[in-house]
Amino acid sequence: MTTVKDAPPSVVLFDEAFDRVSNEREKLREMLGGKGAGLAEMCRAGVSVPPGMTISTEMCRQYYAHNGTLPPTLMQEVMEKVKVLEERVGRRLGDEAKPLLLSVRSGSKFSMPGMMDTILNLGLNDKTVGALGKLWNNERFAWDSYRRFIQMYSAVVLEIPRERFEHLLESARRKHQVENDNELPVPALMSLVSSFKEMVKATSGKVVPADPAEQLKGAVEAVFRSWKNPRAILYRNLHHIDHNLGTAVTVQAMVFGNLDEQSGTGVCFTRDPGTGEKLLFGEYLINAQGEDVVAGIRTPEKISSLKSENAALYGQLEKTAQLLEEFYKDVQDIEFTIEQGKLYLLQTRTGKRSAQAAVKIAVDLANEGVISREEALKRIAPEQINQLLLPSFDPAEKEKAEKESRYLGKGLNASPGAAIGMVSFSPHEAEKLSEKGHKVILVRPETCPDDLHGIVAAKGVLTSRGGMTSHAAVVARGMGKPCVTGCSSLLIDLEAEEATLGTHVIRKGDVISLDGSTGEIFWGAMAMKAPEFTGELTTLLEWADSFRALGIRANADTPQDARRAREFGAEGIGLCRTEHMFMDQERLPIMQSMIMAASKEDREVALVQLRAMQKEDFRAIFEAMDGYPVTIRLLDPPLHEFLPSLEELLESVATRRAKGLEGQRLFREEKLLKRVRELKESNPMMGLRGCRLGLLFPEINEMQVTAIFEAAVEARRQGIEVKPEIMIPLVGHERELQAVQQHLEKVALSVMEREGMNVEYLFGTMIEVPRACLVADKIAETATFFSFGTNDLTQMTFGYSRDDAEGKFLQRYLDGVEIDGEKHKILQDNPFEILDRDGVGQLMQIAVQKGRVVKPSLKVGVCGEHGGESSSIHFAHKIGLDYVSSSPFRVPLARLSAAQAALK
Is 51 helix (H, G, I), strand (E, B) or coil? Predict the structure, then answer.
């Protein structure tokens, strides 16, 4: 038998949601969205919430399934619920004595702040506006609300550009010589309403309907449509939110923050979203409505000011905030309205926060006993760890900038971090400049949801208006981008594309530096300082280490990188690329002379010099990694990579010949040209490189292995514990490994016998050829460890040249290839960033299984770039690898991801 509760409801009142939908929070959020679920839960908790209803996400999905048509009985159900609201508040929709006004808002399962549309004051028309004024004995409030309704309805439902309303508003402010909208007198507001209507009709040929029921239908449809607006789609793509979820619609009785000086509106976090400090953090505006705070049109007051102005109201807000945080066991972002001294909550949701705050809040909540350590670890997105470790400005450089008069001014420190870039006043231009490789700072009076693409493209955001909870602040914080808002001394002329700040004129293309942690703005580029661990981050990562099963190593080619890796918690080096040691100005000529040598004897002269250099490198790396394993990959790239390009040499030789310039340089370049031609390959990445190079030129491998063991012996004599692991690259056939390793084992034994000291060591191989995965059992008979080089393994498995694919077709595969008007999304993720589990991952599993059948103790790890990517680390844990290796700066991310994989 099917009960009422079993049938998915189309529309539910806030206080009946648990009876008609579910007692489970996750199901409630799926059906009613985060906002609807939050309102239902607040009602249940006894929080003061204006009555309302939620139209389910299923209705949104049906709207799109039926080509943008509302389900036939939906509005009938909505109007039946409106009657319940009318009875509860004692006012009626469209009534010419006591009119009920409604707000209509979006609310998906996952918070998407500012991405979809809202309409306030619905129910006003030329008749009810007068009734509203009489009801509240406030004519100005009524006309201000009507002005707002015409503006929002026209922009959202009739799709009139918002700038046209702002232009008319600005003209009215100038005419009446006021700075803010709330200072406009009644005649000005009445005139604005008429101007808005005339402009809407002239622009679109449409009018805002007078019938409140028709207004409500249009608003519901508009909110559903906003689910697929460009900024919402972009936001979901950025945050990997399912496009098929749909949005719910919340219809709620209006409470008015713009009634008088005892009314207001605000946004409040239960803890500081920038630092994580445990205090009420937010802003409010007296005599205002909600969009005034988030849009940044007026710079609001800090919530702490409310404590001195109205201690009782502040205490009520503080108590409610604490109640909600305890209920949700997380920081809450609360929207509230004060109507003639009474507090109402309009929304609560999990608060967006900076990376620094996220870590502090998680650790603090665990230490307070609110959540477990496991839950604290799960709450941190691994990418937030990377944000924490980004460089900031050097304090000494800031002092120097002030002395040089490069300090421009200060705004609100809305989102921490440091950014340097060229100024752009347009989000569209910022996007284009970013696509060309430029670093951009987006500068705007304030931002709105339509600017999202520009914020995504920019390195940082600067606004002249808006507060700590404005659109720019909230979105930038969520993205981990530095943001400075409310810089009131910044005067922007968008048409001229320039601004003044203090005595400086800032023009499009000028370079500035933003310190989002302090709100400071500087002229030109500033020097950065290395990141530092906070106490909370250290604690969190120590907790992570206690849960994870995977070892965490680093890819490091220099002693400096190795030391940094240890500071970040690496338990060894998983990849030391020896070719990187030959590329400096001192060594490259010696390497080139080795390549140019006409005989083995001549080659060995250069190799002796290189051996001494490599020995010192390895000794310093062993010292930095005292007691931890160091995996050293023997020379991997083709030799031509150490020589000038064929095109450069051809041009230089041709030019010198044309000018008749004979001499030693021409002779040398012609000799180089001849050798480059000899080494030239059609497909060098699959040519003479890796173990193939070692087989044809064994003296190169001999030099490197000799240097490794001489360095190991020397380090041991200095009391350093060494664990070298020599990795033979690009093995595709078991006999390649057998031949190379057999030869190099003799070299290692020879050095140890000569030096009279034994060193613990391993020989293994880098698995980066599909065939190696398929014959891993045969390779494991020789190797003592495997390390997956997932970069090359991905290239060879897909048959994609990474360099060519990313520039030619890979992005289109990700965005969707259009054929016959239909888009076909070929790839869900870039396989060079996120490991392809179905193809590359399956090869890895085969290699692990086959290798460990032959050698159960076989050590297996990942040293490609995927070793520092969260979902790839989860896969490495799943298939039983021993460790992952990443760049030093991604080691903390890898530590957290490995713990989350174990907890999952």
Answer: coil
Answering whether pTM is above 0.85, one says no
Q: Has 576 been annotated as catalytic?
A: no
Strands 629-633 and 723-728: parallel
Annotated catalytic residue: which of 576, 691, 863, 877?
863
Give 3-state DSSP helix, strand, coil % of the chain, rounded to 5.
Answer: 50, 15, 30
**113 φ, ψ to 5°?**
-55, 120
CA atoms within 13 A on the CB side of 468: 28
Query: In degrees rounded to 5, what are phi and psi of residue 558?
Result: -135, 160
Q: Residue 135 — φ and ψ, nearest 5°?
A: -60, -40
Closest CA to 527 of 400, 386, 415: 400
Token readout for 54 is 């939620």
Would you state the pLDDT for residue 364?
97
Q: According to the model, what pLDDT value does residue 1 have?
A: 34
Q: Which amino acid is at 528?
A: M
On the question of pLDDT at 72 being above 80, the answer is yes
Confidence of residue 3 (pLDDT cuts 50, 70, 90): very low
Contact 678, 586 (CB under 8 A): no
Question: How, if at all, do strands 483-485 and 412-415 pair?
Answer: antiparallel
pLDDT of residue 230: 86
Give the CATH number of domain 74-253; options: 3.30.420.40, 3.30.1490.20, 3.40.50.2020, 3.90.1150.10.
Answer: 3.30.1490.20
Q: Which of 471, 640, 874, 877 is catalytic?
A: 471
Residue ranges of domains in the chain: 74-253, 390-529, 550-638+689-889, 640-680
DSSP string of 308-337, one letter each residue: HH-HHHHHHHHHHHHHHHHHHTS-EEEEEE
Cβ atoms of residues 571 and 888 within 8 Å:
no
Alpha carbon distance 267, 273 (integer Å): 12
* Phi/psi of residue 777, nearest 5 degrees: -65, -40
Given its phi and psi angles, is residue 719 left (phi above 0), alpha (psi -120 to 50 degrees) or beta?
left
The CATH H-level superfamily of 550-638+689-889 is Phosphoenolpyruvate-binding domains (3.20.20.60)
CA 381/CA 358 separation, integer angstroms: 9
Task: Tell me the three state secondary structure of residue 141.
Answer: helix
- Per residue in 363-407, pLDDT (tens digit) is 999 999 999 999 999 999 998 887 787 667 877 788 888 888 899
Torsion angle of the four alpha carbons 194, 200, 201, 206, in this order, in degrees rounded to the nearest 10 = -120
Amino acid at 201: K
pLDDT grade for 503, boundaries at 50, 70 and 90: confident
Per-residue pLDDT for 2 more than 70?
no
pLDDT for residue 4: 41
Statement: residue 658 has pLDDT above 50: yes
- Terminal Cα-to-Cα distance of the chain (whole angstroms): 37
The pLDDT score that the predictor gives to residue 837 is: 96
In this prediction, residues 630-656 reach a mean pLDDT of: 79
Question: Is the pLDDT confidence value at 836 over 80?
Answer: yes
3-state secondary structure of 741: helix
CATH architecture of 390-529: 3-Layer(bba) Sandwich (3.50)
CB of 603 within 8 A of CB of 591? Answer: no
Active site residue 863: yes
What pLDDT does 261 receive? 80
Tokens standing for 840? 């590359």
Using the structure block, give the residue that is written with the tokens 């909870």. Answer: 469
SS (H, E, C) 698-715: HHHHHHHHHHHHHHHHHH
How buried is 584 (Cβ within 10 angstroms: 0-12 exposed, 13-18 middle, 19+ buried)? exposed
Does residue 848 or residue 17 have the better pLDDT? 848
Residue 348 CB partners (closer than 8 Å, separation 6+): 38, 41, 42, 324, 328, 332, 333, 334, 335
